Automatic annotation (TrEMBL):
Record flagged with keyword Hydrolase: yes
Classification via InterPro entries: Cytosol_ACT, HOTDOG_ACOT, HotDog_dom_sf, Thioestr_dom
EC numbers: 3.1.2.20
Record bears the keyword Hydrolase: yes
Keywords: Hydrolase
Taxonomic superkingdom: Bacteria
Sequence ranges assigned to domain HotDog ACOT-type in this UniProt record: 4-116
One annotated GO molecular function: fatty acyl-CoA hydrolase activity
Name of this protein: Acyl-CoA thioesterase
Family indicated by similarity: Belongs to the acyl coenzyme A hydrolase family.
Length: 124
């Protein structure tokens, strides 16, 4: 398997508080990390506020365990006049090993907004 696509944007350790009722890392925790990472990439590109308007194609490939290091990578794949599409991947590494494994991926769409919450140009 090849390595992550995009730039590293977040790295976290999965903790017991991030688990679901069965003791597995909650998928919503991963989604929140990925949304935060995509938001960092979107805000940097548009030099201001950007909001999530869609998340598509999330697929969970592998589980994440308590104590795993989770790294999120983001790559801008398209820009419109006010929108930004970002491919995001989350990878895990067991804390005592070097091997990384992709656990999930998704496409996020953001819109650059002004101080009044209205769409604004991505570049400008």
């Amino acid at each position: 398997m090849s390595g992550p696509v995009g730039q590293p944007v977040i790295r976290m350790t999965a903790m017991p508080a991030d688990t679901n009722a069965y003791g597995d890392i909650f998928g919503g925790w991963l989604m929140a990390l990925m949304d935060s990472g995509a938001g960092l990439a979107a805000s940097l590109l548009c030099r201001g506020r950007a909001v999530t308007i869609a998340m598509d194609g999330m697929q969970f490939h592998q589980p994440v365990a308590v104590g795993d290091e989770v790294s999120v990578y983001a790559e801008v794949t398209a820009t419109g006049s006010s929108s930004i599409k970002i491919a995001v991947e989350a990878w895990r590494r067991h804390r005592h090993e070097e091997t990384r494994v992709k656990v999930t991926e998704a496409q996020f769409t953001f819109v650059a907004i002004d101080d009044n919450g209205r769409p604004r140009p991505v570049h400008g």
